[in-house]
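User: Could you go from structure to sequence for me? I need the amino acid at each position, not a summary. Structure tokens:
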């Protein structure tokens, strides 16, 4: 990073500032090249050369020598999340069938990756989506839609005492993870590439907030899967409609927190807190009432665990609502 002070100079009617020679040399710029200048929200400016986006492709090689399957998968995931466009898998000897299947299985969890070249010793995987054409808020809404749909199905299964509740989340958690990995890749790339951040209309604080929101959303998806497992085989013992009522409050919290976060609606943020207080009162009532009436210790423990999981899900939506920034210009 080049850090030094430059003095503004006036030549004719123009105000000029010289650029660091090291920066010019590093980028290989010359007289006549075009630079793009963007104004940032914090009153700083970003300067970068105008060029072909495709020429900036990042490439990494992963050598199979002495790599376990777990390490191979981790390296593919890591390269994807770090924004590499081309991932080359290099074998010292013939890449065997099992390794190829492991690689393909890992790719199925990573949106945009395709095998573009393959022979006995090498596999070349490329990210084929144009990051500049993606929309972070749209991906976040897609994640939220899958999570919300799963939770709604679980609530409906509770109402109908559907014993197949555990089947409702199968496969959908994987799709949430796929969308989550894509958001993380996009955000991390935008942090390192100001041009991408600008085209996605993401400020530095937006990048941080979307990363946190996506993490809470992915965590909520995992918790909803846990809730499904806790309820499986236990539905006939649940006697309280208030558990269903509490879940409807959580679903409303999710809708308000995600839409409020994307539109920066502070009223929805406040509404989420109000809904959480209602949920908290109901969940406290359920625990106390169930402990008084239920003599079976194991049943009491199961209910307490279910309520605890519901509370964790609800707090994910409160945490996302907390990211909504108030507009202090409105009085």
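Assistant: Here is the amino acid at each position, in order:
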């Amino acid at each position: 990073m080049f850090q030094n002070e430059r003095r503004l100079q006036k030549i004719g009617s123009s105000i000029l500032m010289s650029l660091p020679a090291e920066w010019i040399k590093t980028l290989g710029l010359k007289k006549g090249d075009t630079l793009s200048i963007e104004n940032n929200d914090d009153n700083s400016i970003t300067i970068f050369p105008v060029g072909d986006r495709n020429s900036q492709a990042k490439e990494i090689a992963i050598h199979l020598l002495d790599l376990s399957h777990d390490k191979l998968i981790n390296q593919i995931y890591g390269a994807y999340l770090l924004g590499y466009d081309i991932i080359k898998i290099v074998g010292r000897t013939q890449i065997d069938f099992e390794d190829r299947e492991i690689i393909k299985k890992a790719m199925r969890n990573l949106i945009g990756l395709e095998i573009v070249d393959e022979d006995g010793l090498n596999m070349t995987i490329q990210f084929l989506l144009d990051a500049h054409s993606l929309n972070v808020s749209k991906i976040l809404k897609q994640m939220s839609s899958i999570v919300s749909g799963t939770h709604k199905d679980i609530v409906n299964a509770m109402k109908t005492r559907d014993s197949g509740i555990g089947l409702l989340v199968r496969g959908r958690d994987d799709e949430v993870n796929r969308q989550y990995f894509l958001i993380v890749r996009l955000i991390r790339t935008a942090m390192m590439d100001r041009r991408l951040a600008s085209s996605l209309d993401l400020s530095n604080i937006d990048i941080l907030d979307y990363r946190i929101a996506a993490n809470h959303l992915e965590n909520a998806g995992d918790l909803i899967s846990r809730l499904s497992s806790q309820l499986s085989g236990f539905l006939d013992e649940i006697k309280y409609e208030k558990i269903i009522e509490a879940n409807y409050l959580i679903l409303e919290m999710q809708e308000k927190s995600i839409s409020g976060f994307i539109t920066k609606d502070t009223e929805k943020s406040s509404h989420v807190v109000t809904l959480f207080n209602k949920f908290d009162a109901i969940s406290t009532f359920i625990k106390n009432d169930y402990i008084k009436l239920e003599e079976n210790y194991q049943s009491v423990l199961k209910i307490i665990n279910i309520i605890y999981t519901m509370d964790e899900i609800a707090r994910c939506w409160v945490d996302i609502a907390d990211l909504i920034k108030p507009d202090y210009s409105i009085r």
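One structural detail worth keeping in mind: The mean pLDDT is 85.
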